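In response to reviewer comment 3 from the previous cycle, which asked for concrete evidence that the modeling workflow produces usable outputs, we include below a single protein chain processed end to end. The sequence was submitted unchanged, and the resulting structure tokens are shown without manual editing.
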Amino acid sequence: MSDAPRDRIATRAVHAGFAPAENLGAVTPPIYQSATFISANTEELEEINEGKRRGFVYSRIRNPTVLAAEQRIAALEEAESAVLFASGMAAVAGALAPFLCAGDELVALPDIYGGTIRHFNDILPRQGVSVRWAASLAPEDVEACITEKTKIIYAETPTNPLVRVVDLPALSELARKAGAKLIVDGTLGGPMNQRPLQLGVDLVTHSASKYLNGHGDLIVGTVVGSRKLTREIRSLQQAAGAIMDPHGAWLLMRGMATYPLRMAQHNRAGLEVARFLAADPRVSKVHYPGLPDHLDHELAKRQMSGFGGLLSFELKDPGHARHVVDATRLFGIGPSIGGVESLISQPGNTSHHSVPLERRREMGISDGLVRISLGIEDIEDLIADLSQALEGCK
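The workflow returned the following structure tokens.
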């Protein structure tokens, strides 16, 4: 690696993956909305196909706008390569596909996104892959699930919606000893708050619809890692066709340019709102790793540089949860996270709606749990809105 100084993340967010000098001086990346690219002759076409010459042939295989967005994500994660997919769940499926065959096993940590749970329960068994669920996030419980058939350990950190933090160096060591790959969903942390690849993780997935894009107008996922691993992922992606379109990649490039600025505000809002809720007598529990009483606070301080803009809380009277959600004015009732607008929901009827009730309860997701994704609005206005909503809890 070069000893030359590296640009910091805010600079990479604006400039990585795109050179105006190579695009007629355009300050904004162009959208190459073309399915097909013309070669000068058959020799050039063959050299592009063989990777001997830089160029493009067909957008299902490679597109300039998509490539620029991939390079920017890789730069943010300080990774060698990134692959964009049509959605976050397509990215999860794409990250698993090259490394699992019938008869293999995947060890999953229990506190993960509801859509991923559904994939593990409904899709992987049909492919002959067994999923072994760890009893908790503790490394010793993960180790207890590992067998000679284990090919992947899968985790999410921080988790959604309880915002738990997983010990990535410990899991990385377990995966290394088992000869397995560690794949982590890093959506909630994002590359500004944590970089799992630097903690021994093999591949990181993101629902880039969330914090990386940040504007609520795009569905997109990504897998980030070494060129060796992403090359295998990209090869299967091209065969399956779960690609990102050029216009979506352009929107993502636009969103990533302001990512560090937005994330800084998310971090500030998350901590201030968490402190406000923790002091409210009507709230029994706040799930936010920036609070000293959070189960993973010390781990989060070691592993993360910011605690994010997502938190959840429980009311002393669970029956008031629906009222609080309905009574907010600035918070939109919606299932997503990571946008410029603040959202509020009950995970039981949004992110984990597809998870059976008993499984939700085992995960600690009660019907009285309220999740909020803090946007970039004025923090005092957000607190005032939550305050007036809580006033109705009589």
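The chain has a mean pLDDT of 94. We consider this sufficient to address the reviewer's concern, and the full set will be provided in the supplementary archive.
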